[in-house]
Design goal:
Number of helices: 4
Helix content: 25-40%
Strand order of the largest sheet: 1-2-6-7
Oligomer: single chain
Radius of gyration: 17 Å
Structural class: alpha+beta
Strand content: 25-35%
Length: 174
């Protein structure tokens, strides 16, 4: 599923934690539009998930979602570590992600009340791999842009993760 925009929401639904929001292009997926619409009228749904890293492209991380209720649907969200690693890191740290159907050009600020669902994604085995995966990829990106030693690039990648966690770790009082 193409992610067309992202943002973060903090509030009582997630105990004040900053939770990333992704707007996905559902132009060809009316079932996901319907899933979100039904979710706002019925009891909470059931979803299973799985994080993973693409085998052929070490820059891509996937979040596979299998919705059971209120309707059955599957979606795979792909994230570039270089461009969207902060979303993955924030989702892993907040243990949740908001999913909002949309179209290219949509932004959270244009319609903050548009229907969306909060998907809880508790820790799994990918959480343990993420830090190493992210640091290795980010260090490689840093080295491709600047001729610095491998260890310096690794230190900068670790620093980037720490700074992004400081920002995304913000909590609103509940």
């Amino acid at each position: 599923m193409p992610v067309v925009a992202d943002g973060s929401i903090a509030g009582p639904a997630a105990d004040g934690r900053m939770v990333p929001l992704v707007i996905i292009d559902t132009t060809s997926r009316p079932d996901l539009d319907e899933l979100v619409r039904l979710h706002s009228h019925l009891s909470p749904g059931d979803v299973t998930y799985r994080w993973g890293q693409a085998e052929r492209n070490k820059d891509l991380v996937s979040l596979s979602l299998w919705f059971v209720r209120p309707i059955e649907a599957r979606a795979v969200l792909m994230f570039s570590i270089e461009g969207e690693g902060i979303i993955v890191d924030n989702a892993l740290n907040s243990r949740a992600i908001y999913l909002q159907p949309g179209r290219p050009g949509d932004r959270l600020k244009h319609d903050p009340h548009r229907p969306k669902i909060l998907i809880e994604i508790p820790d799994d085995d990918f959480r343990e791999q993420w830090e190493d995966v992210a640091v290795r990829r980010l260090a490689k990106v840093i080295r491709s842009r600047s001729p610095i030693p491998r260890e310096e690039a690794r230190r900068l990648a670790v620093q980037w993760l720490a700074q992004s966690r400081e920002i995304s770790g913000f909590r609103l009082p509940t």
